Amino acid sequence: MTPTPTAPDGLGTRAGKAFAAYIGGDRERLSELVDLVTPVLWNAARSQGAAAPMCEDAIQTAFLQLVDRAESIKEPAAVLGWLVVVVKREVWRLSRGSRREIGVDEVPEAPTQQLDPESHSILSERQRVLWQHIATLTPRCQELLRVIAFADRPDYAAIAESLGMPVGSIGPTRGRCLQKLRTTLGSDPGWAV
Amino acid sequence: MTSHTEAIDARDIANLGQLRDLFAHADPVPSDLAERMKFAITVHALHAEVAELMDSALLTTRGADAKVEPTPTDSVTFTAASVSLMVSASPSDQADTDARVRIDGWVTSPGAQIEAVTIEGSVSEISDANGRFVMDDLPHGPVHFVITDPDNDDVRPVITPTIQI
């Protein structure tokens, strides 16, 4: 289950191949696609600060739209990015009812990542240290790093773009968010192994 | 000193790995989320009617002593507006071990096509004049059934929720 950074095919490529096979008539490959991308989509949805049931609805809507529009999707290889865009948009559309200040055309920014107290209490000592460092990053960096952490290195650039980050914000170069994480962890003597 | 214009290296990948472990631990993907998504996609793609899980023998065969755990007998009934389906699972005849599962089923429509969708793919049978059918050599794990009328494409398929066999 652990993404392998050295694998020739990243998660996005494998998802793209499964989706291309599905469009080509191998209907059962859709199940493989769902298994591959669900962790990324869950974290993309949850990083927007919405409650779990709303995130599940958003992910389901994205999959159903994918099936409905399968034949018209130009680049099956880009299916992971396509799903991330729809999930993020759908979470914000669903939450708009309770957050009237969000404009229709506004590209919303993810909030600072939060853990509920119960989740915080189950973290290991080292994870608590990491959490403190994450909290020093900007909300945009927190969102980006959280989502790409569930994908593979070749996918980082496409996912960043899907989340609305500028091109070149990450991959193949480290980018400012990953650099900041590295710097803040590197400056903590308690983090060094 | 490192710079944000350098290539991502092993330390960055390790940092992201720790971050992934943190969120996977503190806010895990619901364990059945992927299966529920697949089910929703199937229902949507088939324009299907979803059958209700009516009763499981797990719930009904309670012993006289209330403290005794219900005896598991793996039999389940599903009901939709147009059709009902009962299935019971037992070890397969095909293997010496209980690694495979046999399904004995009964559906209220003779000549219906019943498709069992498992982790290995799908198997189809046509119910006999009494509505009975047998599927041998299925894998353990999640399964759902899709009931269609092979003689009439206008009838909406019926799909059952996923059960474990």
Automatic annotation (TrEMBL), chain A:
Q: What is the lineage of its organism?
A: Bacteria, Bacillati, Actinomycetota, Actinomycetes, Micrococcales
Leader sequence residues: none
Name the protein family: Belongs to the sigma-70 factor family. ECF subfamily.
> What are the protein's UniProt keywords?
DNA-binding, Sigma factor, Transcription, Transcription regulation
> What name does this protein carry?
RNA polymerase sigma factor (Sigma-70 family)
Q: Name one GO molecular function term.
A: sigma factor activity
> Which biological processes are named by the entry's GO terms?
DNA-templated transcription initiation
Q: Which organism is it from?
A: Humibacillus xanthopallidus
Top-rank lineage group of the source organism: Bacteria
Question: Known InterPro entries for this protein?
Answer: RNA_pol_sigma-70-like, RNA_pol_sigma-70_dom, RNA_pol_sigma_r2, RNA_pol_sigma_r3/r4-like, WH-like_DNA-bd_sf
Automatic annotation (TrEMBL), chain B:
Domain of life, source organism: Bacteria
Q: What is this protein called?
A: Uncharacterized protein
Q: Which organism is it from?
A: Humibacillus xanthopallidus
